[in-house]
Amino acid sequence: MDRLTPVRPWPALLATVITLLIWFAVPTPEGVTPEAWHLLALFIGTIAAIIGKAMPIGAIAIVAIMLVAMTGVTNPGKPAAALNDALSGFSNALIWLIGLSIMLSQSLLKTGLGARIGYGFIALFGKRTLGIAWALTLAETLIAPVTPSNTARGGGIIHPVMRAIADSLGSEPGNSENGSTGRYLALVNYNINPISSAMFITATAPNPLIVSFLLKGTDGVLAMTWGMWAIAALLPAVVSLIVMPIVIWWLYPPAITKTPNAPQFARSKLEELGPLSLAEKITLGVFALLLCLWAGVPAFIMGSGWEVNPTSAALIGLSILLLTGVLHWDDILKCRGAWDTIVWFAALVMMAEFLSKLGLVSWLATSVGSSIDHLGLHWSVATLLLVLLYVYSHYFFASTTAHITAMFAAFFAAGLALGAPPALLGLMLAFSSSLMMSLTHYGTGTAPIIFGSGYVTLGEWWKTGLVMSVVNLLIWSVIGAVWWRWLGYW
């Protein structure tokens, strides 16, 4: 070995200092167990190391898993149990859905079907890069009502199309000349997902859970039907979907902005590709099957007994591609992004889940509600503050389902106690539960798939996520509140 590449000392030192300060110097708050507080120290230290790029993110994840196992914070005095806890993230079906989605997308690249789809989109909308962005937006929005897995939708269906379009424009990750075009399209690709997830009860898995929380929290008064939810989301969602590509353009403009000859060029490329090959037909059939399974079509037609878990569906699709020879096992082994994502996402999900299990998150929600109440603010200001705290606490979560399960009911109850109108508060928290996905590269399953494609750096992702969170919250809290008032919801 000619050259060692050790950990970067200053980011690693900063992350270590932060961890030790929280662990030893900051007193454990009343109502919080020492184990929960120590795990929080490890979690924050891990995030600091990731932000500072102390090591590659997968390597940081391995160190984090080791520290959870060795410190025994999840199971004091039981080393074997603590190790099982530390490795429990690898048994999470969502994590494997993410990895499998990345593997599945290799078939679009290998067979050329992805390029064919990309050229097709360019032929229709390719005169401007902004037009391509809105085309992706429209495509995801159209399938959102029937795709309960936002990960499958944004990461498994739309992302391969986006990559094919970027490749056809000559924009590859790390390309100093045209790479910014791929970066722009990748950021648009991801930021469609939180908005489309907020639009329909069936657009992401946790939304039905929110409906049940609203029903229970108001003793059956606030019963949101599919239609009520969709109508409430319609106007603010349309505004967000129109504005979002423009805001990202302002933040990170693409190198290629106008492509007047692109449609003709794309049509000529489609002619060169000729008719669909057998491998492309198989791949197309597999993705059509996956779309039906992810959308819950079998269960809708034949009953709940035919429901297929999204991760199981992804396994079915990948198995077909392997059995038919469209993909070889070497293709899967070479898919470094998938394996890397599985490792680091497993670590973050594991830590976030145990923060909830150890009671730290519920303590935080209760404390927040009490603190706001003591400020004596008007209910409107108190509600806004409550929503902001709910949204930006998502920095501590690697799963929207975990966040909603841990905090939604507590924050909804706190808001009602502060005097907020139930429907207004409920809708703001409900839609914010999807909009907060924009913040980080681990905030929901779609994020690591698109981030893992390499078009966007960590700093660019977090900056865009923060800006889009502010823009979306403004749109949904102002335009949304007026819209819901006009509809008579509150």
Automatic annotation (TrEMBL):
Chief place of localization: membrane
GO molecular function: transmembrane transporter activity
Keywords in alphabetical order: Membrane, Transmembrane, Transmembrane helix
A Pfam family recorded for this sequence: Na_sulph_symp
Keyword set includes Transport: no
Membrane topology reported for the UniProt record: Multi-pass membrane protein
Domain of life of the source: Bacteria
Segments traversing the membrane: 7-24, 36-52, 86-105, 195-215, 227-252, 282-301, 313-329, 341-365, 377-398, 404-427, 439-458, 464-484
Subcellular location: Membrane
InterPro entries on file: CitT-rel, SLC13A/DASS
GO CC terms: membrane
PANTHER family assigned to the protein according to its UniProt record, in alphabetical order: DICARBOXYLATE TRANSPORTER 2.1, CHLOROPLASTIC
Family statement drawn from the similarity comment of this UniProt entry: Belongs to the SLC13A/DASS transporter (TC 2.A.47) family. DIT1 subfamily.
Protein name per the record: Inner membrane protein ybhI
Lineage summary: Bacteria, Pseudomonadati, Pseudomonadota, Gammaproteobacteria, Enterobacterales
